From TrEMBL:
It comes from the Bacteria. Residues 241-328 form the DNA polymerase III delta subunit C-terminal domain. The lineage of its organism: Bacteria, Bacillati, Bacillota, Bacilli, Bacillales. Its EC number is 2.7.7.7. It catalyses: DNA(n) + a 2'-deoxyribonucleoside 5'-triphosphate = DNA(n+1) + diphosphate. It comes from Lysinibacillus macroides. GO terms for molecular function: 3'-5' exonuclease activity; DNA binding; DNA-directed DNA polymerase activity. This is DNA polymerase III subunit delta'.
Length: 334
């Protein structure tokens, strides 16, 4: 069972309203592209739309879920609904031939025929040309739904024949709820939902031991910076440099560090602010209390400069020593 209508509206309010208006005004097009990142609800909303188009008793532009057609769409057994996914790398021409053959067969069942192409950006040239012909001259009441995460990889000639529905990235509060429903702690969910807004990636990070260690190392460093430069340098040599060996890892570490200072600024402005590290709230409140906006702004600027130096392949030990001195400005040197 997919998500209910309320959940779909939370996920994609604009797309849901567009689809309901299209249906309400009897303006069904021959073809739609559902374009959005993984985890934005494309498949669930496609099922909703297919049901709505075939439902025997829709109510307020919502499928009834109980009629014969709704039940058959739900179980994947409706003879007028065909779904195609790539075989290997591509959607191949034989798959398209078979699909178009089925769509043209008379007497399958009265009513609209619907075909869905998953990963439509993976049509090879031959299958793309075949679908193009069918998009130009569909037989009778036919609706195509093309799902993609790579809109730019679909041929412009196909794009121009489809109505484009853009799926927005997952709102952070929705992602947080999904993560917590998957038994991820609120603290970890808050951090990973700042790193990505794709559910699968967020779940991967939240369950990754390396990421948990990276997070822990960054927060240890933030605490050490509040004490003195020697403590901070010790953490850099003993924990930071051994953990963040590769350029990409170092980049992630600096991003996590930047989020910590961003939290401190947010807390200074509003003690109830949503944070990347809610488990550090008491320390961050303390830091916010003793810092000026100007100083915090300079510290964030230093982290961004370190990130830029990393791109220029500056020596990582030197880069971190320099960063610790810059972040220490305004603190007492012991």
């Amino acid at each position: 069972m997919g998500k209910n209508v309320e959940e779909l509206f939370t996920l994609q309010p604009v797309v849901m309203r567009q689809l309901q208006t299209i249906f309400d005004k009897h303006r069904l097009a021959h073809a739609y592209i559902f374009d959005g990142e993984k985890g934005t609800g494309k498949v669930d909303i496609m099922h909703f739309f297919v049901k709505l188009m075939l439902c025997e008793e829709p109510n307020n532009n919502v499928p009834c879920e109980t009629c014969r057609n709704c039940r058959r769409v739900e179980s994947g057994n409706h003879p007028n609904v065909h779904q195609i996914s790539p075989e290997g790398q591509f959607i191949k021409i034989d798959q398209m031939r078979e699909l178009i053959g089925e769509m043209k067969m008379m007497g399958v069942e009265e009513g609209r025929k619907i075909y869905v192409l998953h990963h439509a950006d993976r049509l090879n040239i031959a299958s793309a040309n075949m679908i193009l012909k069918f998009l130009e001259e569909p037989d009778g009441e036919v609706t195509a739904i093309l799902l993609t995460e790579q809109m730019q990889s679909i041929l412009p000639t196909i794009r121009s024949r489809c109505q484009h529905l853009k799926f927005q990235k997952l709102p952070r509060h929705v992602l947080l709820k999904h993560l917590q429903d998957s038994q991820i702690s609120f603290a970890m969910a808050s951090t990973v939902s700042m790193m990505t807004n794709e559910l699968e990636m967020a779940l991967f990070l939240a369950n990754d031991e390396e990421f948990a260690l990276a997070r822990k190392t960054v927060l240890k460093l933030v605490e050490a910076i509040q004490k003195n430069v020697h403590e901070a340098m010790l953490i850099v040599y003993d924990e930071w440099l051994p953990h963040f060996k590769e350029k990409g890892e170092m980049e992630q570490g600096l991003d996590l560090l930047l989020f910590a200072y961003r939290d401190i600024v947010s807390i200074k402005a509003n003690p109830e602010a949503a944070c990347t590290y809610p488990d550090m709230l008491s320390l961050f409140k303390e830091v916010a209390l003793h810092s000026t906006y100007e100083k915090l702004s300079k510290q964030m600027e230093s982290i961004l400069q370190a990130r830029a130096s990393l791109q220029r392949n500056m020596n990582r030990t030197l880069l971190m020593e320099q960063l610790m001195l810059n972040l220490q400005e305004g603190y007492t040197f012991v």
